[in-house]
UniProtKB/TrEMBL annotation:
It comes from the Bacteria. Keywords: Plasmid. This is DUF3223 domain-containing protein. Gene3D superfamilies: 3.10.450.40.
Amino acid sequence: MVEEASYEKNSIFQLGEYCYSSKKVLIASIQNYLARTNDGEVSHPETIQKLHYLLLMHPKAKYKIGAGVKKFLVTSNELGSGKGFEILRYDNTKERFSYKTCINGQKQTQRSKSVEALRFSIRQQMIDFRKSLKLPLNCAISGLPIHHHDEIHIDHRIPFWELVLNFLHEYNYSLIQLETCGSGEYLKLIDENIIKEFYYYHKKTAILQPTLIKYNIEKSGRASY
């Protein structure tokens, strides 16, 4: 319990591979994004990816996702001022969700840690893939040549959040079930069987590709929170 309290007090907030110095900073960033964005479809890939990660952390994520997320929309609040996010599902039904509900609270923090623990569980695969690369090679996004290892970013062709979501569905897990221990680089899932299941699932389904760091950032889109 002491370790958990210390983690909550001093930790950054991890949203998939995106890192924020605190929950408050992330909330302020989203509020700023909504304030400068018109109503309509969210189109920037990085923002879409972050919204998928946020949605995974919602207490009613399974219900909210429903038939699957086709699009994210920015919509003005019906009551009062301000804007929020709405999901358009593949069955064309719509559902609003609160980003603050996704971020705040112990359960939401646990979901964030669970996603990060899943990412840590496949670090060796990322390292091995990087070691297997022979220079020079071409960036999978731009096609430009890469001559130095420090220029390389290892990218998931299928976004990591999508792999996590598919894994949870296939193995009938929810993020809140994936308990963690430790913190920082020592964060891990408690259940060794789930670690092994995700390790082999990722090895079987993930498509890794080398990209230039610059073009990986541009791929993500710039008008995002």
